[in-house]
Specification:
mainly alpha; 3-stranded antiparallel β-sheet
Length: 653
């Protein structure tokens, strides 16, 4: 019987006695395997396919696909009046008097309304309201709710063990319910989007489990962004840092220093408000954060976590992360694209997902002991670094072995392994093994010996190398004799590049002795300090009574170096041997002495000349610079009251 129905698309009722008994026809009709349209019986294909594939008769209205959104369906439904019947053309004119809508679009809408049992169609092609239905929104909602709840798709959604259902996941469930069709994934995604819109419109219970696809996000600094759609684009560390800064320094005074994205995030979290052009710290939040910050850092962070959890997307990601703590940012974006909206491009999606994930981690940590989690993260990071190093080492060993196998094949074919860079990558690798001899394992050295590897350069190559080295050495020696040092860097040209290279090479004892004779800078930082120290000694010898300033106009580089050593001493970061060397000289560790000396010099000038208008000339350059510095410090409010009073006494304003 089923085979006959598959082969025969439809049959007239007059043919029933000749083909099939009325009893069988009635049975098929009762089971909805066939449906009567006028005087013709047709297979009910949606039900019949299910019967052929699974042997089941699905419940009434169980497997229908809603193709159109609820708003257009409601619009057409409200056009109907009780007791009236409408042909397609009549409805088409009522729907769009301007004739802009497509008739095929209207047909699809009417099909969806029929699937939901909201309207019916007679044998003459007229559409009408069932007698028990009113053409109002409340009837539309009530009937639609019942029909969707009866559907197989809705039943499968309820059965899903997923804590959060994305549009992608809904599409997969939809597709599984109609696995006898050949519809592509993109179309299923569209059907899923439409169904989710219906579920949210009808306020069905399952909506709390389903993510609603966002259509996009507004640009600019919108501090009033909806908590339903807002994404925090900065990670927790940035938010914490800026919040602390605003609590100390205020908001409007430094508004230009804060990126708009940070201010927007603080706004949607409820910390900042906006009135006109002014942005302000919400008073209740400000007092609470200040109080918590004075108590403990942990409580301060917990309040930020609580504020972030008020945003639906942060809350959703936290629940996802709680259920799947090993989920990666890319997986989060691919599986839950509804969180990001269509305006977030695929290339930047994983970046946004990573930031949302960082908030989920931060919030879950706030629920536990922060200190323990910091320690755990530290060990996790250390293990990650260790794993990376082991992986890198394994890869390095693997690469070395591959190159050695190539060299072994070359040796077996030609009887030697004496190749150079002219032979391509393998030759370059072979030559490099001489430089890396000290880093090779004993096993690697043995393997190279097995192919008669030449560890020593040929006499000709060695002579060429020695000649080139000697030439550069003589150039450096001439530089040393002229400038008193050999501390050049790579940016200083060919000779500087050569100097840097010598620190990495394996040199002979004779070469090392030659370089030591011209004070070669084996440690460039150490050598630089010695050069500056020598400049300091020269300065003291020539200008014993002239104090040097941090911003000295005549000796700017030396002034900065002196100030740097002074600051290192105050911070206990100056090496003891350097401190002792400086202490043996009149080094100005205490700048107050310099200040008093300069002040007394200016005071003496005032007593002698009756004013503090210093004349031009080198004699007063130092004092003029010092006076300008004091005025700037007074202007910026960084000079002590005692010093301001002393300066005011001699006419400095």
């Amino acid at each position: 019987m089923t085979a006959y129905l598959v082969c025969l698309p439809f049959f007239h009722e007059n043919e029933i006695p000749e083909i099939i008994s009325e009893k069988i026809i009635q049975s098929l009709s009762d089971r909805r395997l066939i449906v009567k349209s006028g005087q013709v019986y047709k297979p009910y294909w949606d039900v019949f396919r299910e019967y052929l594939l699974r042997g089941n008769i699905i419940p009434l209205t169980a497997n229908h696909i809603l193709r159109l959104s609820y708003n257009v369906c409601l619009k057409i439904f409200l056009l109907f009046e009780p007791g009236k019947r409408y042909l397609l053309d009549t409805l088409y004119k009522k729907m769009d008097k301007e004739g802009k809508s497509r008739s095929s679009h209207l047909v699809n809408i009417l099909i969806d309304l029929q699937k939901m049992d909201l309207i019916q169609k007679d044998d003459d092609g007229n559409y009408f309201l069932p007698s028990n239905i009113k053409a109002d929104e409340s009837s539309f909602i009530a009937i639609s709710k019942e029909r969707i709840k009866e559907s197989k798709v809705y039943s499968e959604l309820l059965k899903s063990t997923e804590s959060i259902l994305s549009t992608k996941k809904v599409a997969e469930i939809y597709k599984n319910c109609f696995d006898y069709t050949s519809t592509n994934d993109q179309t299923w995604y569209g059907y899923a989007t439409t169904l989710i819109q219906w579920i949210y419109f009808l306020e069905l219970d399952i909506k709390d489990k389903i993510l609603k696809l966002e259509r996009g996000r507004k640009g600019g600094m919108d501090l009033g962004k909806s908590k339903d759609t807002a994404i925090i684009f900065n990670n927790p560390e940035n938010i914490i840092k800026i919040l602390k800064d605003i609590l100390v320094n205020g908001i409007m005074q430094n508004i230009k220093e804060y990126p708009p994205a940070i201010l927007r995030d603080l706004g949607v979290m409820g910390f900042l408000g906006k009135k006109g052009a002014n942005i302000f710290f919400v008073e209740d939040k400000r007092k609470l954060l200040q109080s918590l910050l004075l108590q403990t850092e942990i409580e301060f962070k917990k309040e930020i976590a609580r504020s972030a959890l008020q945003l639906n997307k942060i809350k959703t990601v936290t629940e996802i992360y709680r259920a799947s703590p090993n989920i990666k940012a890319k997986e989060l974006y691919n599986d839950y694209q509804d969180l990001f909206g269509k305006s977030v491009q695929e290339s930047s999606g994983p970046t946004y997902a990573s930031k949302l994930k960082s908030w989920a981690e931060f919030i879950l940590n706030s629920e536990k002991d922060f200190i323990k989690n910091i320690i755990a993260r530290h060990y996790k990071q250390q293990n990650k670094i260790k794993a990376t190093l082991e992986k890198s080492l394994k890869k390095s060993v693997s690469t070395w072995e591959k190159n050695y196998q190539k060299l072994l094949r070359y040796y077996n074919k030609y009887g030697h392994s004496n190749i150079n860079s002219r032979y391509g990558p393998l030759g370059t690798w072979a030559v490099a093994q001489r430089r890396f001899e000290n880093t090779l394992t004993q096993e690697q050295i043995s393997k190279l010996n097995d192919v008669d590897y030449n560890w020593v350069l040929t006499d000709k190559k060695k002579r060429n190398y020695d000649a080139a080295w000697e030439s550069q050495y003589q150039n450096l020696k001439k530089y040393f004799e002229k400038n008193g040092h050999s501390n050049l860097q790579a940016r200083d040209g060919t000779l500087g590049t050569w100097i840097v290279a010598q620190r990495k090479k394996t040199l002979t004892e004779e070469q090392k002795e030659k370089l030591n004779a011209i004070e070669f800078p084996w440690d460039p930082r150490m050598k630089e300090w010695e050069i500056n120290f020598k400049k300091w000694l020269d300065y003291v010898a020539k200008h014993a009574n002239r104090p040097i300033l941090a911003q000295d106009k005549l000796f700017p580089q030396l002034g900065r170096w002196v100030d740097k050593q002074r600051k290192k001493k105050r911070a206990n970061k100056l090496e003891n041997k350097r401190y002792l060397k400086l202490k043996d000289t009149p080094f100005p560790f205490n700048p107050i002495k310099l200040w008093i000396e300069s002040y007394n010099e200016l005071k003496a000038f005032k007593e002698l000349n009756g004013n503090i208008q210093l004349p031009s000339g080198k004699q007063y350059d130092q004092l003029r610079g010092w006076l300008s510095q004091q005025r700037n410090r007074i202007k910026n409010g960084i000079l002590s009251i005692d010093k301001i009073k002393l300066l005011a006494a001699i006419g400095v304003k």
